[in-house]
Amino acid sequence: HTYALTLAYDGENYLGFQYQPRDAKTVQGEVEKALTKITGEDRDFLGIQASGRTDAGVHARGQVLHFYARRPIEDLARFQRSMNGVLPRDVRVMKAIRPHPAFHARFHAVRKTYHYYLDTRLTMDPFLRRHALHVGWNPPDVEKLRRGAECFVGTRDFSAFSNKPRDKTLVRDPVRTIYRFDVNELKGDGLLRLEVEGNGFMYKQVRNMVGAMITAATSKKMQPADIAAMLEGKDRGVAPMGAPAHGLFLHDVVYPRELLE
Questions:
Q1: Element (H, E) at 217
Q2: Cβ pair 11, 57 in contact under 8 A
Q3: What is the pTM of this model?
Q4: For the structural domain made of 2-107, what CATH number should be given?
């Protein structure tokens, strides 16, 4: 029996989503422990696969995973409550469904949306310190941020904005499609929310794009037009590495409707 969960979690205390041996604390590890307790299945049979592997410190509001169970779960609402009663308080199951038996959380994802938050106030909001990058000491030019974001929209080779994968044997196509990259000013609280939606993202691509945009919007050494040149040349050169993890959220993952029913 195939089941899918939508998770929200604060990634500050975790070494990313993916399970790691040697007692490393990961989101997947906590979910597996809860599932094993409730379903009685071991981690090998559960076969958890997520829509993507968020890195250490990255948060999620809409992470999706699937798992398998030998026996059907008769009451999914009760199952969701049971999971949230066992999981740590910084990980929550927001939704539990029984999708198509062939559903795969990673391979069937058709769109993903990430949000990145910037706190532009001179004095950092202490309640946002774990969930937004404070840039109040040198606030970015919002129009330059938008011009930088526009450079990424479309189907492009993102070699310049991806890091080498942790798995050295993995070779991935660097061509991705970005459907939109919006810069939104949240009224009244000094926050900027960068929203990027695409058909998929390379390793650390979103953080590298955001890092380049911030540099182009705050430094005289780099302009938004330089981002287009980096894409064309497939080389980030001496541009700064990615923006810190704590401002990034996996916001939403979209699947074909017929696979969710």
A1: helix 205-218
A2: yes
A3: 0.94
A4: 3.30.70.580
Give catalytic status of residue 173 as yes or no: no
91: number of Cβ within 10 Å: 22
How far apart, in Å, are the Cα atoms of 153 and each of 6, 60, 74, 175, 179? Answer: 27, 23, 44, 12, 6
Check whether 14 is labelled as a binding-site residue: no
Find the catalytic residue in 10, 55, 119, 252. Answer: 55
Could you give the 3-state DSSP secondary structure of residue 215?
Answer: helix
Write out the residue limits of the CATH 3.30.70.580 domain(s) in the chain: 2-107
One digit per residue, the tens of pLDDT, for the chain of length 261 reads: 999 999 999 999 999 999 988 778 999 999 999 999 999 999 999 999 999 999 999 999 999 999 999 999 999 999 999 999 999 999 999 999 999 999 999 999 999 999 999 999 999 999 999 999 999 999 999 999 999 999 999 999 999 998 876 655 556 789 999 999 999 999 777 899 999 999 999 999 999 999 999 999 998 888 999 999 999 988 777 666 789 999 999 999 999 999 998
For the chain, give every residue range classified as CATH 3.30.70.660.
111-252
CATH code for the part of the protein at 111-252: 3.30.70.660
Q: If DSSP codes are grouped into helix, strand and coil, which group holds residue 65?
A: strand
